[in-house]
Design brief:
Helix content is 59%, strand content 12%. The protein is of the alpha/beta class and 592 residues long. The longest helix has 54 residues.
Length: 592
């Protein structure tokens, strides 16, 4: 038997000596005035242990506690452990074409997410990171420290490109340099395919150096232009460049003995690549290390100390003895039978009940159970869904609005469901706002379709409003015209009554009235024409109202850029090492 921490004995030596002195010098008040023989005669009945015995037991308890702290062990051995991992380099394309926005928000953002997914889903790998464009740069050497890798990836500045073009040859040379000490060489390329029409020389280089290439195509077949400072990037002839997926990298990956897969918005593509590498790649034996194994014995002195402590405490007077014994029993219970998280159990039971009620469409009971759970983001989300199913859309909106989370998937679902809830309450403008916010987090097909339907309904409402407004104006004009004609008839009747006996005067007056009526009618037609023009102008301005509403977005974007700039300023600088490439980019390739 040996002790892992023998220094504990030396550290506790002083407290032990002090305790011994205290026990030897301490006397009861009665012992100061009476001798030992007299005290024995005066004692009516002796209950429990005497003081010296009890102090001796306390001393033994302290010694056993110290022994437990020193960690006694037995069968201590040193064994050699060999770790087997898969060497892997991940190459991230930072060329101009990766700024294209055919993938929301752009290709490089999705590539960065895929890079983090690979790190999290590949625990049995040792990973290095390579950045490339026309040249390749080592961002991180091959390492098993994934915490540092994630920090480095979070601090990559993807807003600026290293250089123009995508030189796959430089990537292969950088991979060979990083994995030079390993027999197994795997490379994952996150790119839109580069610019070359074929990769014959690169394939031969990969075969000569036993590099297995795996790639994820981060572009669409339709392609997209490349954003520039003013509009989009153009070629020498002035045409806007449209960059599509270059499938040549697919042939390069497959023929090298690796694999290729197109991108997905979830992590299914990364899982497929990781599964493929695990299935066909050999593991590399890294340096072995010595590991100590032993059998722990600390619980024996600790258990004995607690038992002796119980005996010592039981010798106190009745009240103190009961109190101390109860306390010690609780202490022993805590030690030997650790308390379970009852609150967690109750919470788990509520979750299970709520889930069962929800699946059985008993939404009121499910809501009651979810309300019993503390207000975490997930419980609020589930409660909001339950209220939505009950048709309590306003309550659902209030519940969803309480959710505060850093989980992007949960935040997306919250915003999407808020949009659905506002649709149910006929607040279409609000629904449109939350659907747009949800799409900024995740480019989801269902959310897009919902947003399109909301936009169509809003357009129909505006057209109906304009139509009703034009109809009201037309009815008002007709009523005005009718009222004027009636007034004229009344005037004519009055004048006729006054001048019945003068036919010439009557004919003259009738002629004047006709001329006046014709003049008024011409003026009314003129006003109606002008009013029609105004209505068209109003209709035109109303049709542009959604554009005006969208013009508010640059304000939030500016605020977002401002805060993102402040966050970028706080990031630590990253140092990268350039890998000298023997082969550069071809002159006939476009520098995207």
């Amino acid at each position: 038997m040996s002790f892992l921490y023998p220094n504990v004995f030396f550290m506790m030596l002083i407290p032990l000596i002090l305790l011994i002195l205290l026990i030897l010098t301490n006397k009861d008040n009665m012992e100061k005035y009476f001798s030992k023989d007299i005290l024995e005669k005066l004692a009516v009945g002796k209950k429990g242990l005497d003081k010296n015995t009890r102090n001796g037991l306390f001393f033994a308890v302290l010694v056993l506690f110290i022994a437990a702290l020193a960690r006694p062990v037995m069968d201590k051995k040193d064994i050699e452990v060999k770790q087997k991992l898969i060497p892997l380099v991940i190459a991230l394309d930072l060329s101009r074409s990766m700024q294209a926005e055919d993938i929301y928000p752009n290709r490089i953002s999705l590539a960065k997410k895929k890079l983090k997914d690979i790190i999290s889903l590949f625990p049995n790998a040792t990973i290095g990171i390579l950045l490339f464009a026309e040249d390749s740069f080592i961002l991180s050497p091959v390492t098993e420290d994934f915490v540092s890798l994630n920090y480095i990836v979070d601090n990559i500045d993807t807003s600026s490109q290293l250089s123009n073009g995508s030189n796959i040859s430089a990537v292969l040379q950088g991979t060979k340099h990083m994995l030079n000490d390993y027999r197994v060489k795997n490379l994952i390329i996150l790119s839109d395919g580069g610019n070359a029409g074929s990769y014959g020389e690169e394939l031969q280089y990969a075969k000569d150096n036993n590099i297995s290439i795996y790639s994820i195509g981060l572009a669409t077949q339709k392609g997209a232009p490349i954003p520039a400072k003013e509009g989009y990037l153009t070629d020498k002839s002035g045409k806007i460049v449209n960059v599509k997926l270059n499938e040549s990298i697919k042939n390069l990956s497959i023929e090298s003995g690796g694999g290729y897969i197109g991108f997905s918005l979830n992590d299914s593509d990364v899982k497929a690549i990781v599964h493929r590498i695990n299935a066909q790649s050999k593991k590399e034996e890294l340096k072995s290390r010595q590991v100590k194994i032993y059998k722990e014995l600390f619980y024996y002195p600790l258990g004995l100390a607690l038992l002796i402590l119980l005996i010592a405490l039981s010798s106190f007077p009745s009240f103190k003895r009961k109190t101390a014994s109860s306390g010690l029993i609780i202490l022993l219970g805590l030690f030997f039978y650790p308390l379970k998280g009852y609150s967690f159990e109750f919470e788990f039971e509520n979750i299970e009940k709520a889930k069962n009620y929800y699946e059985n469409k008993e939404y009121e009971k499910a809501a009651d159970e979810y309300r019993k759970i503390p207000g975490s983001a997930h419980s609020l989300y589930n409660l909001g869904n339950t209220l939505y199913k009950q048709g309590k859309y306003e309550e659902a909106v209030k519940t969803y609005s309480k959710i505060v989370t850093e989980n992007k998937e949960l935040e997306y679902k919250k915003l999407h469901n808020l949009g659905n809830s506002f649709v149910k309450t006929d607040a279409l403008e609000k629904a449109k706002e939350f659907y747009e916010k949800a799409l900024k987090i995740k480019n989801d097909k269902e959310t897009k379709e919902n947003l399109d339907l909301v936009n169509k309904e809003l357009e129909k409402e505006k057209q109906k409003e304009n139509k009703d407004k034009n109809k009201d104006n037309k009815d008002n004009n007709q009523n005005d015209q009718k009222n004027k004609e009636e007034d004229k008839k009344k005037e004519q009747n009055k004048s006729g009554d006054k001048k019945q006996g003068d036919p010439k005067e009557k004919e003259k007056k009738s002629k004047e009235d006709r001329e006046k009526a014709q003049k008024d009618q011409d003026q009314d037609h003129s006003k109606e024409g002008e009013k029609g023009k105004e209505d068209k102008k109003e209709e035109h301005s109303t049709a542009k109202a959604p554009e005006g509403a969208e013009k508010q977005e640059p304000i939030s974007d500016m605020e977002e850029k401002k805060w993102m700039k402040l966050l970028e300023d706080q990031k630590s600088p990253l140092f990268i090492q350039k890998v000298e490439s023997k082969k550069g980019k071809n002159d006939d390739e476009q520098p995207w």
